[in-house]
Amino acid sequence: MTPLLYDGDYLVVRKMLSNGKVQVGNIVAVKHPHFGPIVKAVVAVTGDIIKLKGLSKLSVCPNGLGDFKKDDIDGVGVAVIPIQSRRNSKHNWFKRLDVEVIQALMA
Questions:
Q1: pLDDT in tens, 81-90
Q2: Are residues 37 and 29 in contact, defined by beta-carbon separation less than 8 angstroms?
Q3: Continuous H helices in 1-107
Q4: Domain ranges of the chain
């Protein structure tokens, strides 16, 4: 299975509003207190608390990241502009992030 994001890819995000809905399978950008800006997938939403997980086997486990509040989310990913698209015009230059596809990757 190919990774969803590669180093150097651009993640297109929409700003998270205070009343915005976050669901399992969303890719989000947050500022972690120890790791700085990170991009992770939402694996659980309970009220205002959100658990995040990386899609890579090398990512820190959800317990290592800790819990986040909805207010901690800077943006929700909507698309990826792959690094390959800048090098080779034969590749798709834009991938829409589909929640169902992301949920399948997490399974």
A1: 887 655 555 5
A2: yes
A3: 62-65, 84-87, 99-106
A4: 14-77+99-106
